[in-house]
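Figure 6 in text form: structure in, sequence out.
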């Protein structure tokens, strides 16, 4: 079918047609995408009820009650859905008294890892020509704009 993938900006949740902004139930597909979007993209240590909880990449600290409310589902439906995802190998759950830690299995299939390591030249070399060209175009645009020459005949258009 389709090949490749896209990244979805978490701010898309603010979009007026996002299920969270509509008065309706999430579909199972939307709920799974929601789990992916709520997962941490990097390690974090957060304060939670007077102590710190460590959350790894691909994990989300939540509760069954929160998810059921967010998805506009009965708590039993949310529980069954999460158990089904766990049986299917899409997530792992660890329930504590105060919260549930959900880990998205194969998270890197959904979200790539962009290296911040300067020695990781594979990713840098793939992006570098595009970034360099874009920076050069922005520089030229700013110079033309400052000189008042942007849009005049015979001047470079970007």
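Output sequence:
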């Amino acid at each position: 079918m389709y090949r490749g993938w896209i990244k979805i900006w978490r701010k898309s949740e603010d979009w007026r047609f996002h299920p969270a902004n509509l008065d309706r139930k999430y579909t199972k597909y939307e709920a799974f995408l929601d789990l992916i979007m709520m997962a941490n993209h990097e390690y974090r240590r957060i304060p939670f009820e007077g102590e710190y909880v460590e959350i790894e990449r691909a994990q989300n600290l939540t509760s069954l009650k929160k998810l059921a409310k967010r998805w506009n589902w009965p708590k039993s439906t949310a529980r069954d859905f999460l158990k089904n995802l766990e049986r299917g190998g899409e997530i792992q759950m660890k329930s504590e008294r105060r919260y549930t830690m959900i880990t998205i299995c194969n998270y890197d299939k959904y979200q790539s890892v962009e290296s911040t390591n300067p020695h990781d030249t594979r990713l840098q070399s793939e992006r570098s020509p595009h970034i360099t060209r874009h920076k050069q175009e922005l520089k030229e645009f700013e110079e033309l704009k400052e000189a008042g020459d942007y849009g005049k005949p015979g001047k470079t258009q970007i």
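Caption detail: Strands lie at 44-48, 51-55, 59-62, 91-95, 100-104.
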